[in-house]
């Protein structure tokens, strides 16, 4: 039925970043609300960040709009303009193609969470603001490379075989 | 910048329903968050309902997914399965084409509000569950008719010239 029972929807802590870039994301979990409810045109997640955790590496999307509303605790939104404190009810929007990369960090000592919505598109490219990396996404999955398309180096991702 | 200053975004109480069908929507207001932030792929609104107000006539969308999260107060979600109490943090999703029409009513004595997201598509049709009406939306605006496409009657909408 349309009303969701959030207590029955699983959370996951998967991180798709290659090698050592996935280190430090243990404190991030996401509860997907779109798939279980049959929605296909945009994704909806509640992302919870434990103290010290971050939402993602700072990035922006080429094809997909993104929107978030804070639901719990306090986070710091970091973008090209600096740091912005986000509290429950605060919202932020990231239009597709706007090169102002963003992520959120929990600098408090209690968990914090936000609802995030992103368009679903058959393909997508995201650019990482602070490192030489981009990701191309299609039906086959994620392909992380340097911004010029060349492979990431061991210097960037270590030699972990994942 | 990405973080929105909600105190600076206007609310409106416009109601597009024809004739007397727009009666009783004075207690509904919506604050658009998508347009001011440059997002184009989905719409985002915070809808506030005063005591007694409803979100819309009960309806479902043919082409557009819809998702909402309660942010304030208490509302009753009405769908084919009956009434469901919605409190802050509660979510509901309405996949495109799912013929389970819905709306929300404020049966409490204080204002209540929810965040709602809907895909933007070039055209859209919505079907009203409890009356013989549909609406077709395109770049030219809204066209309300009976479900068979014939004009609404004075019996349905009165003779108000709007």
UniProtKB/TrEMBL annotation, chains A, B:
SUPFAM superfamilies attached to this UniProt entry: RmlC-like cupins
Keywords of the record: Metal-binding
Residue ranges of domain Cupin type-2 in the record: 46-117
A Pfam family assignment: Cupin_2
Protein name listed in UniProt: Uncharacterized conserved protein, cupin superfamily
Species: Shimia sagamensis
